[in-house]
Amino acid sequence: MLLMKILQLLTIAALLPVYHATVINLVDDVRNLDALPGISSSFNVIFPPAFRRPDGYEHREALFGVPPYGGELAQNVYYADSDLCGDDPVDKTGNYPCPALDPVTGKCKDWQSPFILMVDRGECTFVHKVRRAQQAGASAVIIADNSCMCDKQDQSEGHGGTCQHNSGQCTCTSEVPCESFFPIMADDGSGGDITIPSLLLYKQDADVIISQLKSNTIVQVQLTWNLPAPDDRVEWDLWSNPTEPISSNFQKSFRPAVESLGSSQFFTPHFYIYDGVSNNCHTGNNCGTLCTNHGRYCAVDPDNNLSEGISGADVVAESLRRLCIWDTHGGDGVGSKYWMYLEEFLKDCYDPSFPNEPRSFPKINDWMCSNNVMKKVGIDSNTIESCINFSGGITDDVVNSKLKGEIDKKIEQGVIIVPTTYVNTVAMRGSISTSSVFNTICAGFLDGTAPEICGSCYNCFDVAGCVHEGYCGGSLPPSPSPSGGKKGSVSGATLVLSLLITVGVMGGGGYVYYRRTQREMRDQVRGILAEYMPLDDGQEGGTQMVSKAGGDMANI
């Protein structure tokens, strides 16, 4: 028993470098890119107008938060003069600009909502800063970088100098040296509660805005979010892995929606695979059970048990199987049988407590269960096995073309978090659900080209139910699709006719109400007059009456 324990510890110790190397490699893969694709927002200054730029300001979007795709935000900016790395309540009186002091406290008046908050970059995570700004009432956050971007000369010197950038000059100091790569505003794992957008601004640009704010100048900025809509077909990707629980409910329920969108969309699934070669898993012990192909293609062990249970190699194998299922049945971009496989796999080959229990995992190491599911939905397992072997398989020390393709695509798109959905090359933020993905796809069509189902179900309270019934039957009516619908859209003539009918009905109802009120009033007047007797009918302008009870005279 003691010997077995020692061997297990030695195995874990031998595998520790791969986890460290994986993290380092992940960052290096992304930072070797000139810029991450998928920037969907634009940022510009509205006031003072002298600081507005024709093409806006370069920036980096956060990989967390929920941007309002298709919308815009134009508000005044306050500068907190802090990095918000503490835990104390945010001081809303220590701000710029400070146009007026509170006569009671002698401090600046609180930030007037709504507002966008600018804060300094610091030692804490981006999520921490944005969360504190959100709690303070900010509708968006601009993080001012405190480091210049270095050119090669500055990088070789290690400090000092002036680096040139497209939007201006930036002076580096020994205290805050230049950086070789613009930081990525990544999620630290706790950003699920962030609901406001945020971005990182280059130092030389942020300094200009801060100087205006510190001089008590009102600065108003505009942020807009648009999905590229190049044509009448939206292309979208989902990055996941077979054991991540976050997108499992989505994958189990999205088939009716994707079938209703049909050829108007084109879906491609992707799977997050680690490069074992760059992580030194292709030599030595091949990183144990984490990898296939003698350490070439790896995945994290989902249950953190390297000696039993589901292994990283099992994750890679199931990923490859799904890639082959898609290649065989997904040529139309819809892939109904692929989605059917996911549905049934989630029912038959998953622990019943998945994904609600954190220690429950799918039975991806049970190949018989997978084969039974394929047979159930009409997929030929022999065809899929041939595809797996033709791509390079998982046992030999050879390159697998499909798995290598996933690694290359991951680096190209800059994917660092799973699950992640890309719509028209733009990374979708926020939760992955049937409603959110469906609405984002519908927002990505060229104006007037969205399919009929978008006109019926866009922003419906229950998108899944709307897709099933063909109309929005939830408590909230559907919003007009931002791209319009090919069919089922409301024409101008229909709208005018509907308005005329509505006005006619309301007018008729108003006339009936008017006649009824007049009749009731006349009856009441007659009742009052019955209490009086006429005195003189000859006075012009009215009839003089006196109450039989001896009341005052009145003209009526």
TrEMBL record:
Vacuolar sorting receptor thioredoxin-like domain ranges (all copies): 234-442
Task: Enumerate the SUPFAM superfamilies for this protein.
Answer: PA domain
Keywords for this entry? Calcium, EGF-like domain, Glycoprotein, Membrane, Repeat, Signal, Transmembrane, Transmembrane helix
Chain ranges passing through the membrane: 490-514
Question: Which residues are the signal sequence here?
Answer: 1-21
Q: Which GO terms describe its cellular component?
A: endomembrane system; membrane
Q: Which domain of life is it from?
A: Eukaryota
Its membrane topology, per UniProt? Single-pass membrane protein; Single-pass type I membrane protein
Statement: the UniProt record of this protein carries the keyword Kinase: no
The record's annotation in InterPro entries points to:
PA_dom_sf, PA_domain, VSR_TRX
Give yes or no: UniProt keyword Membrane: yes
Q: Where in the cell is it found?
A: Endomembrane system; Membrane
Q: Which residues form the PA domain?
A: 80-147
Q: What is its main location?
A: membrane
Q: What is this protein called?
A: PA domain-containing protein
